[in-house]
Amino acid sequence: MQLAGTNVGTQEAVSEGVSVEGLTVKFRGTPLIEGISNLFEPNKVTAIVGPTGCGKTTLLRSINRMHDHVAGMQVSGKVVVEGVNVYGADVNVREVRRRVGMLFQRPNPFPRSIAENVGLAPRAHGLANRGNVRDLVQEQLTTVGLWDAVSSRLHGSPFGLSGGQQQLLCLARTLALSPDVILLDEPTSALDPDTTDHIEQLMKKLSERMTVLIVTHNLAQASRISDNVLFLMKGNVVEATSARTFFHDPADERSRAYVSGRIG
Amino acid sequence: MESRAPRFRHLKGSVFWIICGIALAAIIAPAVAVVVSVLVKAAPELKWSLLTNTTLNVQNPGLQNAILGTLVLSLGVVVVAGPIGILGGIYLAEFAPRRAGGFLRFFSEVLAGVPSIVIGLVAYTAFVEALHWGFSVLSAIIALSLLTLPYIVKTTEVSFSQVPRSLHEAAIALGLSKITTIRKVLLPPALPGIISGMVIALAISTGETAPLLYTAGFSDHNPTPGLFNNPIGYLTYVTYYYVGQPGARDQALASAAAGVTILLVLLLIFGGRAITARQRKMVARLDV
Ligand SMILES: Nc1ncnc2c1ncn2[C@@H]1O[C@H](COP(=O)(O)OP(=O)(O)OP(=O)(O)O)[C@@H](O)[C@H]1O
Ligand SMILES: [Mg+2]
After folding, report:
1. Among B166, B175, B180, whose Cβ lies nearest the Cβ of A108?
2. Is the ipTM of this complex over 0.95?
3. Where are the domains of chain A?
4. Least crowded by CB within 10 Å, which of A118, A161, A190, A210?
């Protein structure tokens, strides 16, 4: 699979993470994030934190080009995934999205059977066929720890599952495309503590084989699971550092205030 | 002022409910009245020979040719207006740039507003006369399709645009193509609405007379293969024509035809509901 016309990032290549360079997103001329640059290290969990409206979601959605589908959004700058600028001229956007998975705040399973939810995208991308899609479905549902709960109702509706189970199904759906990067936008904010804990454990484990970016309002969660922290305010980077430094000895006064709960 | 407010609100509340009740009655009462009065009048005339004899039988006229004709014309509407209307609705909901969309919606609304007799007249001038198709199955099907197309387009468009944005986003984020997204993700939740639209279209085709007078002509024989120069019978014509005839036998046939028309429409509505109920169950709790 190639991301662009030129052959870059073969399957055996060491993951390069995600590098954002001078990224600006404007909505009808008004900047939402301004000239953000950062390297999201490969095989690490990076938490994106900051007060509400600071541009966390906007940043996350520029990485898999979700803004393409919102009228009035203009993106400039570079987002480099596995050596390829995803905003480059000859980029295959669908392949970018195959490699960069996204999990949303609220579970949004497709109105199809549980099995089809997981198998649909791999079939569409030619990563699975009728013969082996069932194995893939089982593998992914097992990875997210949902297999035992749903194995007897694979052809039933996903809307009979609990909210937490639905979110795990959506995670399995995303993982079924073997992404190199996974973007999570407050994935546990609507979930119970047990499922939240379960998803946090999964994130740690998944970071062994992919780059994980997670937006969260929950600083305790960020400190539990993240290796690095990107702290934004008003569309700008305040501090980008290791989680350890951010939570114990941040360089910026505003980070100190945010960590101690005085901002946001 | 302060102390009067709750009482005033209470009064406003009751007025609101009374108006709602009147509105509800205004919908239910005529529907029930029409169905009941037609069926009561038709009931004594409903006999087995209606299904086995055609209007050609002078001694004991039946409706076989008219019923079959109505079914053929309805099938024609499904085949012609169905795909065009559904694809048009999908285009409007998912693809149309704003200008083109507005343009198309405008013409669809104009078409919906054209009286059916005018559509019949235009179809007569264009197909029956200018193209020399004569009174024909195809002219009739096209006239009915023009009449029902706006409903199919509209219900399809609305059904698709009511699918939650979160499903579009999930599909985009997985890199699914637009076509796959429409077929596999958006169609299941949109389907009940589309089917309802088709049912309305079929109910209209079953019940219309005006556009068919100029295009279908009428035939006392059962439908025969052939789209051109081939008049065809249909139920509403029997009501329209025989109700104006003097004999008691003719009056009875008119009542029976009206009753069968109403029964067919009811069958369509309940059939449509049965089909969509299963589908709705699958996509139930789609409140994401
Ligand atoms: N589709 C949009 N149209 C217009 N403005 C938008 C849109 N999406 C986001 N914004 C604006 O961009 C700014 C950043 O929004 P964003 O959603 O990225 O913030 P956030 O950090 O994710 O906030 P939260 O923590 O509340 O989720 C906000 O001022 C918001 O109003
Ligand atoms: Mg957000």
Report:
1. B166
2. no
3. 18-260
4. A190
* DSSP result, A195-260: HHHHHHHHHHHHTTTSEEEEE-S-HHHHHHH-SEEEEEETTEEEEEEEHHHHHHS-SSHHHHHHHT
What's the angle, vertex CA A147, arms to CA A141 and CA A148, rounded to 5?
170
Residue with the smallest CA separation from ligand 1 atom 16 is A55
Residue of A nearest to B190 (CA): A111
Residue A232 CA: nearest ligand 1 atom is 21
Q: Which H or E run contains A177?
A: none
Q: Is B192 on the interface with A (CB under 8 A)?
A: no
Cα(A54) to ligand 1 centroid in Å equals 7
Instruction: Output Rg (C-alpha) for chain B, integer angstroms.
Output: 23
Instruction: Round to whole Å and give the CA distance between B167 and B22.
Output: 39
Q: Are B66 and B237 in contact (CB under 8 A)?
A: yes
Three-class DSSP category at B70: helix
Report d(CA B63, CA B201) in Å as an integer. 23
Mean predicted confidence (pLDDT) in A52-79: 95
Strand extents, DSSP E, chain B: none
Sign of the dihedral through C-alpha B184, B188, B193, B196: positive
Pocket probe mutation, ligand 1, options A25, A33, A56, A68, max atoms within 8 Å of Cβ: A56
Record: contact A124-B169, CB cut-off 8 A: no
Which among A118, A116, A98, A109 has a CA at the least distance from the CA of A177? A98
Rounded distance between C-alpha atoms, residue B86 and residue B276, angstroms: 16
Which residues have CB less than 5 Å away from ligand 2 (the ion)? A 57
Nearest to B205 by CA among B271, B158, B265: B265
Q: According to the model, what pLDDT value does residue A122 have?
A: 97
Range with lowest mean pLDDT among A9-13, A19-23, A180-184: A9-13
DSSP string, B151-214: HHHHHHHHHHHTS-HHHHHHHHHTT--HHHIIIIIIHHHHHHHHHHHHHHHHHHHHH--HHHHT
Find the ligand nearest to A56 CA.
Answer: 1
**Reported CATH class of domain A18-260:** alpha beta
Residues B89-115 have pLDDT tens digits of 999 999 988 888 999 999 999 999 999
